[in-house]
Specification:
Helix content is about 65%, strand content about 0%. It contains five helices and no strands. Helix 1 crosses helix 3 and helix 2 packs across helix 3. It is globular, with a radius of gyration of 17 Å.
Amino acid sequence: MAGAIGGLLATVPMTLAMESLYRPLPRKERYPLPPRELTQNLLQKVEADALLDEEQRVELSLVSHFGYGALAGALYPYTRQRVEHPLVYGSSYGVAIWAASYFGWIPALQILPPPHRQPANRRRLMIVAHLVWGAGTVWIGECLANRRDVPSRQRLN
């Protein structure tokens, strides 16, 4: 549970990083960021895009983005035995999640093209955002899991 909470909360600074790195992009690269792109493309695939208005699409994009952050955060305790340096481990974990998603299931399901077919600036933006997310996820998760009032068998050890 600590990993899921960490992933959910770390999605806030990730989103802020994405927004701040988005603004200086060249005009032709300022199309919707991946959380919105993914949601739009999935809605179109299941022919549900016309069922939602703009506000609902934005809300669904945010819920999906934060939900995926929580889900991916919940998985990190299964990838390691012990974390000596949460920020270093977390950053690596964040990039691994980015790679597994953007080179893996996302293009496999034909939702978005793989990163090597996207502008380098946007690719860098997403890598930085995932470094931020991963570091935050593991740091928060480890802080929550190692609290003294949590029984040891429930910690992320």
